[in-house]
Structure formats: structure tokens, C-alpha cells
Amino acid sequence: MNCVVEDISITKKRLTFEVKADIVEGEIKKALNELRGRTKLPGFRPGKVPVSLLDKKYGKDVEKDVLDRIVAESFSGALQESKLTPITTPVFETDFRSEFKRNIDLKIVCLMEVRPEIENLVYEGLPTKEIDVKIEDDEINARLQGLQKSKGAYEPADREIREDDLVVLDFEDVDNNNTYADQYVRFELSSIPENTFNALLGKNIGDSVEITDSFPDTFPVEDFHGKRVNLKITVKDNKEFVIPELDDELAKDIGFDGIADLKKNVGEELEKMKKEYLIKEQKAKLIKSLSDKHDFEVPQSILDSELAKIVAEARQTDKHKDKTEEALKEEFKDEVKQSVKAMIILSTIGDRENVSVADNEIQEKIYMLSQMMSMSPEALIQFYKNQGDGSLDGIRDMIYREKVMDLIYSKAKIEKGE
Asked: Would the pLDDT of 52 be above 90?
């Protein structure tokens, strides 16, 4: 294929290639003949409609379909021949659909940003420390206490109201004569105004209090939000949170043979989680070492795009919401550059090692993520499609990066710790 690359910069190229007229014409005739076999027109037997008539009637639609396909194929061939790897969507400077004429060669010109070459990229034998994971008794006990609490439940409390109880209250708005019965309220200062909290603390079922207080927008009774209300409050019921004993019975309820079996499993799970976390840290350090070692020009459009995403996310947080866009760009620009450099390094290594992502790997990742996020797989798929161009490329890219990082880690040189 006759193609020419114009170097605009290290990462920006203009690619010119030709689409031969005889190839296009041959494909158009092939498509028209295929159309002929399935087209029915009045006055002609099936499969006997003249190609010239089909060309006159459907030629423009056939030309468009054929041209789009052949230009895409020719573009792919031109990239291979010129050894370019686009990292942004190419911009076609040629309006090839309007310029196309039958039996005349078509010249296509497109502008793109490409992945830069990384000189002397060596990723085998990178040094990393041997992982030695130790789980302390305090860590196991903390996890066991968490399991205990997860099996706890509210049970009737035949006593006075205490902090952290779950109380059932009847509210009577004295001024408006409205009643709000059977309102479940967590008895804690984060849920109840302080004056109301103090008035009810120590009361028993059947007791009533009269109080005027201001209620926040988080209070369970929506009609009280942002208002100062004169109330009569009656205690209907009271429940306390009861945590079961940490014993064989609890262990069996969770699915283990006994408390010893549960402790052993908790220790093993904590060790596995800690090891996975440390390996993830090591992988990140290996990528950073490659990024620090290799200096290369990063495509500006990718930097701008990634920086815009980070700034937009930062402005949604309390920490950064009052900062200007320019200040946030300055704050995050180095971090984003390192991230984009890492992405380019991973892409380069992945290509060298022929890393790919199969459809079944995407399905497995979707299922795993949906379980972690307590979402249905369908909802997760829609979430990712809404984030980008309607595809699952975000998940595919995530798996691709993970596989490349696994590969780099597998080739690392493990050094014994002191």
C-alpha cells in the first residue's frame, strides 16, 4: 500500500494513503450481485434483475457501505505498514464520501495522535521485595467482632430508653393537630435534636414528653424538616441491639464447624487479603519505576482529557469544591502525567507480549464487580456504557492493564527481605 506519514510532532502524525479504484469497483459489483440474488422487482424473476438497474436504484447506498468498509480496512493496513499506533480517534481531513467518484483512485488524509516510542524499554527482572505477611491476633479479633455485630439484631428492651436504642414514637403536632404514629427512630444525637434527645433519655414505654424543638432535614418525619415544632411525643416501643456471644453456636450459624474453625478461616482470609494488597502495591511501584526511568513526550490531547476528568471529579468533593479550575489543573497535572505515562508503558508492553482480553474474561469481571458493588450485572453494564461511548471498553481496558501488570510482576526479580 502506498502511504505517507508526515511528522507534525513526536506524537502527532498526518497519514495519507490511497484506496484503489479497481478494488472499490470490484467490491461494489460484488455487493450488487449479492443484492441481485435476494431482490424482487415487478417484471423480473427473483435473481434476474439487471445489475445496471440495481446500480441505478441502490448504487449510492451500496457505494456508501462498501466505501466505509474498504476505507476502514485500508486505514488498518496503512497503520500496520507505517507502524503507527493511534491513541486517540483519528480525524479524517478528507471527506471521502463526498469526494468519491467511481473508477478514480481515492486519496485519504487523516490526522491522529500516536503512541510514542519508548527507547530501551526493559521490564524483565525488575527488583521487588519478597512478601512476608504476618497476621496479628488483634486483627483476627477485630474481624471476629465485626462478624459478631453483623449477626446482631434489635430485640425488645423492657427498660428505660438508652443511647443507640431503636425507639418507636408517636408525634403529635400540637399547633396543627397532626399525628405521626409509629415512627422508628435511632436514639442517637446524630438523628435527634439535642433537646428532644435529653427529654426522652431514660423514659419508658408509655411515657410522654412535651417539647418545642427545631428539626434537621435528616429527621425521619419529613414534615418537621427545617421547622421549629411544638410536639407531644409518646414512647410506643423500645428495642436494644443485642450482639450474640462469640462461640461455637455463632460459628455454626455463619457456616463453620466451630469457633476454632472460624478463627482459622478468618486468619487465612486476612492473610490472603493483606498479601493481595501488598502485591498490588508492588505492581504499582514497578510501573512507577518504569515511568520514572523513561522520559518521553506524552500526547497533549490525552493529558488534557484525563486532567479534565480528574478536575471535574475533584470539584465534587468538599476538599476541592471552592478551588478554581486552573488551581486544580496545576495541583493534579503531575499526577495525571504519571498516570498517562504508565498507561502508555502498559500499552507498549501489552502489544509486545500479545496480551489480549477475551469476551469471557469481560463477563467474569462484570460478575465479580457486580457482586462487590451489590449491583446486578445488567446495571453494572449500563453504568459503564453511560460513562463513555456506549461500549464496555472501560472494563476491557481495566482487564488489559491488570494482565500486563501481572505479566511484569511475573518477570520481576524477587529479593529476599532482611
From this structure: no
C-alpha span between 206 and 220 (Å, rounded): 21
CB 159 within 8 A of CB 187: no
The whole-angstrom separation of Cα 69 and Cα 85 is 20
Span 205-211, average pLDDT: 96
Element (H, E) at 107: strand 106-113
The terminus-to-terminus CA distance of the chain in angstroms comes to 59
Report how far residue 417's alpha carbon sits from residue 130's, in angstroms, rounded to the nearest whole number.
6
- Strand-pair partners of 264: none
Record the pTM: 0.73
Confirm if 239 and 157 have CB atoms less than 8 A apart.
yes
Q: Determine the length of the chain.
A: 418
8 A C-beta contact, residue 159 and residue 262: no
Q: What is the C-alpha to C-alpha distance for residues 311 and 327, in angstroms, rounded to an integer?
A: 9
Coil, strand, or helix at residue 128? strand
* Range list of H helices, 233-376: 248-254, 259-293, 300-314, 325-352, 359-372
Q: What distance in Å separates the CA atoms of residue 68 and residue 377, rounded to the nearest whole number?
A: 34
Whole-angstrom Cα distance, residue 137 to residue 46? 82
The torsion angle over the Cα atoms of residues 327, 330, 335 and 340, rounded to 10 degrees, is: 110
Residue 130: what residue type?
E
* Rounded distance between C-alpha atoms, residue 89 and residue 391, angstroms: 15
Under DSSP, the state recorded for 297 is P
pLDDT tens readout for residues 83-137? 999 988 899 988 888 888 888 888 999 999 999 999 999 999 999 998 989 999 9
Q: How far is CA 404 from CA 123, 129, 411, in A?
A: 11, 19, 11
Rounded Cα distance, 303 and 337, in Å: 7
Residue 333: per-residue pLDDT: 93
Closest CA to 377 of 365, 388, 386, 387: 365
- Count of alpha carbons within 13 angstroms of residue 154, beta-carbon side: 13
CB atoms within 10 A of CB 17: 22
Least confident interval from 91-95, 179-183, 212-216, 338-342: 91-95
**In the chain, what are the domains?**
3-113 (3.30.70.1050), 153-242 (3.10.50.40), 258-415 (1.10.3120.10)
Q: Which of 311, 295, 301 is nearest to 345 (CA)?
A: 295
Instruction: Please name which of 321, 137, 157 lies closest in space to residue 236, comparing C-alpha atoms.
Output: 157
Q: Say how far apart CA 265 and CA 28 lie, in whole Å.
A: 66
pLDDT over threshold 70, residue 1 = no
